[in-house]
């Protein structure tokens, strides 16, 4: 992959094109540069405007097996600094072209300054949950749909007693009758608070606020009223800018981003590459924690894909804080140690079903927390 | 394709699976049914809950060349009737699986009752713009970025004088300095109103309100204050539920939906098939007009794909009104007649660049409007 240099005042996008020849790739790249900016045939506007606003094809690099990478850059006059126009220019109408995939994205300083990024970030989360020594973090999910809010609160209390750092709602828990939003959040938050009071722990509960946008404000207020320090949101369902608005807004909530409906995967010929979507866009839009589907679980994502996401979430990105990668989706609790070894301590492992499937959930969760403590970097006092 | 029967109280989704064997397809379909509902291993919850809530594999049909179509249905207890949970169940986590494409979707009556659908619909739009005789509709786009709002207003006035039914902002026009949202909408709306007063016409201007969600309410109020009857929104950028909230809300605005960033295309192995995304989801969520990229333009979509979208937008869908398909994306004004012949009168042809590229924009637009009038169905008084 081309590693695009950040260009002053320009958004730099790299598109992977499935094309037979260099000349064909050059033509597609020029079509993209026009489609994403002026979107009128040559000659409609002045040469001055064309020169100023048309996307610029900066380079085309052949790839071994599957076509070409075309780097196209766009001026700030086109993108502005608002999140949705940035996405619109990077991957708007061209998302309707087959064989065009967005594989890299570099945001100019002006955009990075305007976007919130994580309110807490990885280090802020460690302070929030009292995770000392730079150890990896543990999150557990309460599920499934169909359980009542009292049952879910019981599971949450067990997780909190075992000392997990974070508890999240299943993303399918919205407002169904066995566990309606208001009652669920109240009762689960209370159960977690009581467990914290017993143990002296600081487990954080992230309720799922995904739902009708016109109810979001009142849901966030309810989350604040119950004392929860954060929320879970599904940005690709609700809208990326909805997450941005929470991260930029007045309520001091951390955000856990869930990847449902994000329509991405490794090695596809269209879409946004997972590391770009999660590692750049979700993070810049305000996710403190980014859940993705881990290798070796229910989804067939290669471990290199997961490592690319981790790397993006932790890489320098202007003034924007680093976020916690949260590999999930069928991770087995017994494998936690080897994942910490592979991914390093700046990781929040998210485990759901494999804990819930056990006879002794409390014991299994305690062992998981011990594995995280044992993975504290050497030389640091845990 | 399987044509799924609507099932009482169940959402029916058809997934196209690229799979070597029937048995492999059956296994993937069962994985999907679990992933989209309980999302815990067998044995975690009671057999009663599994029976009640697990997705049901209703059938698997082999396809000639590329795998199998699996029909999976979900109970109302899982989906609820809120738009985002419906999408989450139909194509949530499975959007992260390669080789799984959503190719059909049937919504139960309960969901159709809860979703707004178009406020005006195709017939309401005809009344709004005074298009008599059931003729096709004409829309034109003001563009590009970089032009000032006065320049854009001049173009809009020309289109209105020529009698187009609708004028839309380019979807790249957001709040950039040459044409900031507030000034642009005020000045363009005035120019269109003046032209309407001159001609006795009723051209409708649809300003693009896509942008920060926390500014949406004030933008909609401004649109209402300037007397515009509708707005353009990009639902796949802003969030499908944002469009639903406008369609369900108190402001009597028609909605034109733009497909930017909708990440769909014909013949892909992942994603949501265009006719399902636009024809069912965009429509049910409230789009009166659905723009898509037409065959023969800048995008390589086959005409059969376009016809499938048209058919879905016009098909019965509970109490939900029909919407106007708006083929666009490099449609040439000279071809309008043949498109009307092919697509029929229940169509709004959207033309941008090919009008703007002409010396005599007024004359070319007038000829286009005449072509629409000439396409009035036989036997109807135009």
Shape of chain A: elongated
On the 0-100 scale, what is the average pLDDT of chain A? 95
- The level 1 CATH classification of the largest domain in chain A is Alpha Beta
What distance separates the N and C termini of chain A? 39 Å
Fold-level CATH name of the largest domain in chain A: TIM Barrel
* DSSP summary, beta strand count of chain A: 13
CATH superfamily of the largest domain in chain A: Ribulose bisphosphate carboxylase, large subunit, C-terminal domain
Low-pLDDT ranges of chain A = none
Q: Strand-residue fraction of chain A? A: 15-25%
CATH architecture of the largest domain in chain A: Alpha-Beta Barrel
Q: Tell me about the biggest sheet of chain A?
A: 5 strands, mixed
Domains of chain A (count): 2
């Amino acid at each position: 992959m081309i590693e695009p240099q950040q260009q002053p005042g320009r958004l730099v996008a790299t598109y992977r094109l499935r094309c037979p020849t260099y000349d064909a790739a050059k033509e597609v790249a020029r079509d993209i540069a026009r489609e994403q900016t002026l979107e009128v045939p040559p000659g409609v506007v002045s040469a001055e405007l064309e020169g100023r606003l048309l996307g610029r094809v900066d380079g085309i690099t052949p790839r071994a097996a599957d076509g070409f990478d075309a780097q196209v850059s766009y001026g700030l006059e086109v993108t502005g600094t608002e999140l949705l126009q940035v996405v619109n220019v990077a991957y708007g109408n061209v998302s309707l072209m087959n064989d065009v995939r967005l594989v890299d994205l570099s945001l100019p300083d002006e955009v990075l300054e305007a976007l919130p990024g994580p309110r807490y970030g990885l280090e802020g989360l460690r302070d929030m949950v009292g995770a000392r020594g730079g150890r990896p973090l543990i999150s557990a999910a309460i599920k499934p749909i169909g359980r009542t809010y009292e049952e879910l609160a019981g599971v949450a209390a067990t997780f909190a007693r075992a000392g997990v750092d974070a508890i999240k709602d299943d993303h399918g828990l919205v407002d169904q009758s066995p566990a309606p939003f208001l009652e669920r959040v109240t009762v689960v938050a209370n159960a977690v608070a009581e467990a914290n009071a017993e143990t002296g722990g600081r487990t954080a509960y992230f309720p799922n606020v995904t739902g009708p946008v016109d109810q979001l404000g009142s849901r966030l207020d309810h989350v604040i009223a119950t004392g929860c320090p954060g929320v879970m949101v599904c940005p690709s369902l609700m809208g990326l800018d909805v997450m941005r608005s929470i991260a930029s807004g007045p309520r001091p909530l951390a955000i856990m981003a869930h990847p449902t409906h994000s329509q991405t995967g490794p090695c596809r010929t269209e879409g946004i590459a997972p590391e770009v979507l999660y590692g750049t866009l979700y993070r810049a839009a305000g996710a403190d924690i980014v859940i993705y589907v881990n290798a070796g679980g229910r989804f067939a994502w290669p471990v290199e894909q997961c490592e690319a996401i981790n790397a993006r979430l932790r890489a320098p990105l202007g003034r924007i804080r680093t976020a916690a990668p949260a590999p999930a989706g069928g991770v087995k609790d017994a494998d936690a140690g080897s994942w910490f070894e592979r991914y390093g301590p700046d990781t929040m492992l998210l485990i759901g079903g494999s804990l819930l499937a056990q006879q002794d959930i409390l014991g299994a969760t305690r062992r998981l927390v011990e594995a995280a403590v044992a993975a504290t970097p050497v030389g640091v006092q845990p």
